[in-house]
Amino acid sequence: MVEKKSILIIDDHPLFREGLKTIIGPDPRFKVIGEAGTGREGLQMLKKLKPDLIVVDISLPDQNGIQLTRDIRRLFPETGILIVSMHAKIDYIAEAFQAGATGYVVKESAAKRLLQGLESVANGDYFLDSSVSQAVVKNLMKFPLKEAKITDADYATLTPREQEVMRLLAEGLSSKEVAEKLFISPKTVENHRANIMKKLDLHSTIELIRYAAKLGLIDVDLWKE
Asked: Most buried by CB count within 10 Å: which residue of 22, 42, 150, 213?
């Protein structure tokens, strides 16, 4: 029997925490081992419980969830972090991934997307709630790309396989889905992804999608609901 992934929930609304636990509870893959209403309490419980995954809200009473994500990533680099927030704006989403989050779900779609997001994050994949993906693509071209120079010459440094993997990842496929599509292992996909990010000087999924969109490698319609 596969051991359940342990989860810590950090959100200042008790009713919403209860709602998340109701969604997660019946799933045999996960178990909630703790919950906190503030960033400070969350960090204390994180150090004590050492969960596999953390569900974090951006709006906390004592600390911005983005900064909390940075703190968590610095202290526990291997822990999966899924942001569940009411904010669906590109700046929040991009900043969350840049801070170290590995998944982002909008609260209004949590009932549909939460378990899918947790599964992706638990598998080491990035997850972006498809309910915000269309808005992301529409604004991606206007969002500043930090320290990344986008040129066809850079893209040409990728091997044909890396170019293929990059396009599929930018279309929103998980590493597992890319692996199945290309008949390779998820680990191989992750190795390709690491090489792609290094060669192109990209640092987040948001930057990868923006790069692909700028070069016309992905169809914006693919990101619609």
From this structure: 42
pLDDT tens digits, one per residue of 43-57: 999 999 999 999 999
Query: In the prediction, which pLDDT does 224 show?
Result: 42
Fold (CATH) for 5-138:
Rossmann fold (3.40.50)
Q: Kindly indicate whether the domain formed by 145-219 is annotated with CATH number 3.40.640.10.
A: no
Q: Is 15 exposed, middle or buried (0-12, 13-18, 19+ CB in 10 A)?
A: exposed
Q: Where are the domains of the chain?
A: 5-138, 145-219
Three-state SS string over the chain comes to CCCCEEEEEECCCHHHHHHHHHHHCCCCCEEEEEEECCHHHHHHHHHHHCCCEEEECCECCCCEHHHHHHHHHHHCCCCEEEEEECCCCHHHHHHHHHHCCCEEEEHHHHHHHHHHHHHHHHCCCCEECHHHHHHHHHHHCCCCCCCCCCCHHHHHCCCHHHHHHHHHHHCCCCHHHHHHHHCCCHHHHHHHHHHHHHHHCCCCHHHHHHHHHHCCCCCHHHHCC
Q: What is the mean pLDDT of the chain?
A: 83
Mean pLDDT (whole number) for 93-106:
84
